């Protein structure tokens, strides 16, 4: 006799979040916070590396520092948006680009949210928790 599993008892899939910050400690600390909150998270230290990973594995969310060498967070967000298809939630963070015009540029570049450093872990987790809501697809359109 085969066992029938009720689909409602299955654990929800862990959401995958990529964190890119050229300050290694910041990226690793953010990943540790997300892992502790039940996310699958990976750290990257360059825009080029996170862009390659996004193309290869379609994360649910990407947290991008803006001021990174080689490829900035602005450029990564624009490239992700230009690809179309299922888009990850894109959250920008910066301690340098903090003016109203920077926030407007973030929106034009494709960021869904923009946080100023130092980022509150509670605020970041709150924004990511929107992905657990079935209606969350609307926030990534």
Give an overview in words:
The structure is a single chain. The protein is an alpha/beta fold and 141 residues long. It is 38% helix and 18% strand. It contains five helices and five strands. Helix 1 (24-36) links the parallel strand 1 and strand 2. The longest helix is centred in the first third of the chain and has 13 residues, at 24-36. The radius of gyration is 16 Å and the shape is globular. The mean pLDDT is 85.
In short:
With 141 residues, the protein is an alpha/beta fold.
Largest sheet: 5 strands, parallel
Distance between the termini: 45 Å
- Mass-distribution shape: globular
Number of helices: 5
Q: Which ranges are low-confidence, i.e. pLDDT below 50, for 5 or more consecutive residues?
A: none
Mean pLDDT: 85
Number of strands: 5
* Structural class by SSE content: alpha/beta
Name the strands of the widest sheet in spatial order. 2-1-3-4-5
Query: What integer value in Å does the Rg equal?
Result: 16 Å
Helix-strand string: EHEHEHEHEH
Helix content range: 25-40%
Strand content: 15-25%
């Amino acid at each position: 006799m085969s066992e029938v599993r009720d689909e409602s008892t299955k654990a929800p899939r862990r959401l995958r979040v990529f964190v890119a910050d050229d300050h290694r400690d910041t990226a690793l600390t953010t990943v540790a916070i997300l892992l502790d909150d039940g996310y699958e998270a990976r750290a990257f230290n360059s825009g080029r590396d996170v862009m390659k990973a996004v193309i290869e594995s379609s994360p649910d969310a990407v947290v991008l520092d803006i001021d990174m060498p080689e490829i900035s967070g602005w450029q990564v967000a624009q490239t992700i948006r230009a690809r179309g298809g299922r888009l990850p939630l894109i959250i920008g963070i910066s301690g340098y680009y903090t003016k109203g015009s920077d926030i407007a540029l973030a929106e034009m570049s494709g960021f869904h949210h923009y946080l100023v450093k130092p980022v509150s872990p509670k605020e970041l987790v709150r924004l990511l928790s929107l992905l657990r809501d079935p209606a969350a697809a609307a926030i990534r359109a």
